[in-house]
């Protein structure tokens, strides 16, 4: 057994420094499996991106003016008149997109390797996903362009399917229409919610450490061959940081408007709805589900059901092994599901036509069917293997 304790110097008398030293010792000396691959890097990259979003967001909040006639002007002021302001603003905007890409890779790794069996870690992660979506939506509204306005109208109107939903919508808006009061409320929530997100992230990491740390890709016992987190995985994380953040810096230098929506630069016209209202790319698969079901309430329920079924994955797991590495058919189904998500993302970005809605409905069925087929495939594979072993014994 490898000794995974972090050896530090003499402890200072100050209680705060002593506590901090204990946290660092525990984090750096955390026992880890030897076989963690690159897919485990996205969790640490998300922590880096969250810190980056907090720092750049605080800078932008200093100059942002949450008023209908000044919101977009304050964004232009940061971009044009503040030295280096355009870099900070683009880091914040692109950082949100890169962060969601890392989130989806992180969730995909958890599904493939069975990390969801650690229920506390999985559910705290799902809470982080929902909070991140809320923060991203509020941030999308703040520039107060045409797409920001109509996006706020569409999303907040979803509450009308609830009992007393119309009154709840008026309470969110601060009146009978979306106005400056709504914008100020969204700005306050967007400013406060990231600190809640940071707190839940720390709880997520603590739950992971308390439960024994990360599982290995094969889902086997690894305690007898554990290695310390530092320096083996800190060095890998540094490489991941450089690749992810360096790639984002290259994007904002060479294609600064890559993640920007052109319609959001237009002045708001509350009397004229744009022909195509669509969210950011990381919401498009949910938008595809919402749009593919004709009934408004059914579409909203299915959209939130897509997130709920992700949270319920630990209860759908059957079989002897946690990882899909032992189930070839499950691997095929998983990659079909990933491809289906890409098709849903593309479908959600296209203008709604009869063909596109039919494709979206089919993709929605495939999305939910994946979670029901996995346990069936696992049980079928194990039964086939057990029959094969029994035949070999009889032949012997």
From TrEMBL:
**UniProt topology in membrane:** Multi-pass membrane protein
Q: What is this protein called?
A: Cytochrome b
Locate the coiled-coil region(s) and give their ranges.
Answer: none
What InterPro entries does the database record attribute to this sequence? Cyt_b/b6_C, Cyt_b/b6_C_sf, Cyt_b/b6_N, Cytb/b6-like_sf, Cytochrome_b_N_euk/bac, Di-haem_cyt_TM
Function comment: Component of the ubiquinol-cytochrome c reductase complex (complex III or cytochrome b-c1 complex) that is part of the mitochondrial respiratory chain. The b-c1 complex mediates electron transfer from ubiquinol to cytochrome c. Contributes to the generation of a proton gradient across the mitochondrial membrane that is then used for ATP synthesis.
> What cofactors are annotated for this protein?
heme b
Give yes or no: UniProt keyword Membrane: yes
Q: Where in the cell is it found?
A: Mitochondrion inner membrane
């Amino acid at each position: 057994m490898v000794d995974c304790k972090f050896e530090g110097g003499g402890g200072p008398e100050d209680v705060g420094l002593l506590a901090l030293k204990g946290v660092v010792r525990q984090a750096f000396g955390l026992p880890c499996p030897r076989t963690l691959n690159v897919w485990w890097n996205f969790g640490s990259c998300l922590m880096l991106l969250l810190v980056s979003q907090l720092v750049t967001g605080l800078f932008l909040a200093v100059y942002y003016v949450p008023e209908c006639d000044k919101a977009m002007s304050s964004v232009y002021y940061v971009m044009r008149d503040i030295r280096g302001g355009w870099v900070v603003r683009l880091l914040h905007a692109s950082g949100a997109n890169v962060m969601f890409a890392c989130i989806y890779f992180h969730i995909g790794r958890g599904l493939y390797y069975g990390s969801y069996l650690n229920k506390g870690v999985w559910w705290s992660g799902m809470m982080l996903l929902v909070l991140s979506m809320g923060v991203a939506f509020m941030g999308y509204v703040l520039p107060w362009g045409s797409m920001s306005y109509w996006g706020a109208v569409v999303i907040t109107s979803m509450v009308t399917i609830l009992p007393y939903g119309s009154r709840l919508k008026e309470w969110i808006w601060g009146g009978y229409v979306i106005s400056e009061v709504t914008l100020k409320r969204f700005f306050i929530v967007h400013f406060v919610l990231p600190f809640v997100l940071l707190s839940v992230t720390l709880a997520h990491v603590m739950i992971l450490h308390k439960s024994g740390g990360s599982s290995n890709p094969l889902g086997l016992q690894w305690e007898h061959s554990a290695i310390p987190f530092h320096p083996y995985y800190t060095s890998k994380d540094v490489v991941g940081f450089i690749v992810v953040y360096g790639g984002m810096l290259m994007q904002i230098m060479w294609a600064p408007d890559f993640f920007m929506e052109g319609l959001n630069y237009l002045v708001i016209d509350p009397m004229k709805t744009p022909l195509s209202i669509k969210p950011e790319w990381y919401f498009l698969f949910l938008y595809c589900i919402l749009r593919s079901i004709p009934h408004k309430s059914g579409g909203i329920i299915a959209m939130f059901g897509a997130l709920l079924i992700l949270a319920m994955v630990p209860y759908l797991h059957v079989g002897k092994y946690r990882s899909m590495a032992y189930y070839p058919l499950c691997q095929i189904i998983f990659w079909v599901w990933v491809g289906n998500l890409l098709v849903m993302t593309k479908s959600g970005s296209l203008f709604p036509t009869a063909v596109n809605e039919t494709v979206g409905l089919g993709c929605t069925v495939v999305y939910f069917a994946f979670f029901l087929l996995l346990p069936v495939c696992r049980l079928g594979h194990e039964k086939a293997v057990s029959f094969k072993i029994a035949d070999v014994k009889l032949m012997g």
